[in-house]
Design brief:
The chain is of the alpha+beta class and about 230 residues long. The protein has one domain: 3-Layer(aba) Sandwich (Aminopeptidase), CATH 3.40.630.30. The chain contains 7 helices and 8 strands. Strands 1, 2, 3, 4, 5, 6, 7 and 8 form an 8-stranded mixed beta sheet that branches. A hairpin with an 8-residue loop joins β6 and β7.
Length: about 230
């Protein structure tokens, strides 16, 4: 597949350690779309256990946390209580063909086949990178005249019956030396402060004196299924 993810996203250490293991260890929670022999889309999700008050279904450290919990629960043989989507990725040649909602539906069906009535999703709004200085809390409140979100990917989720619940302010984090950030982005990283990076939902914070930069990405928790009481 020809993917469009920004290069720096794959440098998240949790993703680098665990994401490639998801299809092998949780195959029943993964889906693909094919065109002949060609894979043109994939969807990954994982089950995890929520045990209040130590855990919640929609943690502030969203994506990183649920992926970590899923593997820890499997290792310790704890029975999951809910599932969370991790990603839906389309081949760039197949964008705009209505495949995204079908992949979301397929992930929901996969979760239901395993006995779960709820699929959560730490959603990465697809148009947020165009406005990196807008707080995510403000961005998610934007709706069209028909009441649907202005963001295209959030709109797909809401049309599919999802409910926008909250912002996950620190869903994933990427840190590295300035030399690494220059390699990942092609940008100079030669001044202190916020740096706008193509594809980033918020600016990357650069620290020249200490020779590193940090990106903390917010996502948006969307629930497909009933809300549970604490």
């Amino acid at each position: 597949m020809t993917e469009t993810w920004p290069r720096f996203i794959s440098q998240d250490p949790v993703a680098g350690s665990l994401l490639h293991r998801v299809p092998e260890e949780f195959p029943e929670f993964c889906v693909v779309a094919t065109d002949g022999d060609r894979v043109v889309a994939k969807g990954l999700s994982v089950p995890f256990r929520t045990d209040p008050p130590d855990r919640e279904e929609t943690p502030d450290r969203g994506w990183d946390t649920v992926l970590t919990w899923a593997f820890a629960d499997r290792q310790q043989r704890r029975a999951p209580t809910v599932t969370s989507a991790l990603e839906i990725t389309l081949d760039s040649a197949y964008l705009g063909r209505g495949l995204s909602p079908r992949m979301l539906s397929a992930l929901k069906d996969a979760s239901a086949r395993q006995g779960y009535d709820t699929l959560l999703a730490p959603v990465r709004p697809t148009a947020k990178h165009l406005e990196p200085h807008v707080p995510m809390s403000d961005y998610v409140r934007r709706v069209r005249d028909d009441g649907l979100p202005t963001d295209p990917w959030l709109r797909v989720h809401v049309r599919a019956g999802g409910t926008v619940e909250k912002v996950a302010p620190a869903s994933m984090a990427v840190s590295g030396s300035l030399a690494q950030w220059r390699e990942w982005t092609g940008l100079p990283f030669d001044r202190d402060g916020d740096v706008e990076v193509p594809g980033a939902l918020l600016p990357v914070r650069c620290h020249m004196e200490h020779d590193y930069a940090v990106y903390v990405e917010p996502n948006v928790w969307v629930r497909h299924g009933p809300r549970r009481s604490a």
